[in-house]
Amino acid sequence: MMEHTSRQYEKELHDLGDKILFLGGTVEEMIARAMQSLVDRDSDLARRVIEMDRTVDSGELDVDHMSLNLLALRQPAASDLRFITTALKIVTDLERIGDLAVNIAERALELNQEPPLKPYIDIPHMAREVSDMVHRALDSFVKRDAAEARAVLQADDAVDALNVQLFRELLTYMIEEPKNVTRALRITFIAKYLERVGDHATNIAQMVIFMSEGRDVRHPRLKLNTRS
Question: What single string gives the DSSP state of each residue in 158-175?
Answer without folding.
Answer: HHHHHHHHHHHHHHHHHH
